[in-house]
Specification:
Elements lengths: L1 H16 L12 H38 L4 H24 L1 H4 L3 H27 L8 H5 L30
Helix pairs in contact: 1-2, 2-3, 3-5
């Protein structure tokens, strides 16, 4: 922000001073110099904004895939695209931090987030490489038995069991 304000102040001073600030010997005049700095700052800022928008687009696609529970191989591809866009943004922030007035804390925070996203991406891509894991066996499969359901035709009609005491006294019989 301070560089931008400085550029505007230089441009204003050059505009009001006019030809008195022109230099000889092939050096550009102050107005030309200030205009060049301002144009470079505008280009850098618009490039950073485009990189930010591209990173955001890939981040949104990644979030949408997470919400719809996409398979790991699809999420891995989306993570790789996101990390590439974010890496490009970080490079642009570092290269243009002075010209665009990007604080060092912002770059540090973006790098930290990029590191965390890289770790998650590594885990997701490893999971995608392993492929679908077979489901764990059920208890019946692990014990080597099959569950059986009693059939009403083979069940005894009445027995002299503990629950039959409601129909009479077992001692009276």
């Amino acid at each position: 922000m301070a560089v931008r304000a400085f550029s505007m102040a230089v441009a204003l001073a050059a505009f009001t001073s006019g030809p008195a600030l022109a230099q000889s010997g092939g050096m550009p005049s102050w107005p030309t110099f200030a205009a060049g700095i301002a144009a470079a700052a505008r280009r850098s800022v618009s490039k950073l904004l485009a990189d930010r928008d591209e990173t955001q687009k890939h981040g949104n696609a990644l979030q949408a895939a997470g919400k719809k529970k996409a398979p790991p191989d699809e999420v891995c591809k989306l993570f790789n695209a996101f990390l590439a866009a974010e890496g490009k943004l970080i490079k642009g922030l570092e290269e243009n931090s002075v010209l665009c007035g990007v604080p060092a804390d912002v770059i540090k925070q973006v790098k930290a987030g990029h590191g965390k996203a890289s770790q998650v991406s590594k885990q997701v891509c490893e999971m995608a490489e392993r492929g679908a894991q077979p489901a764990a066996p059920s208890l019946s499969e692990a014990l080597g038995t099959t569950p059986t359901v009693p059939d009403s035709a083979t069940a005894s009609k009445r027995g002299a069991g503990t629950f039959d005491t409601l129909t009479g006294s077992p001692l009276a019989r």
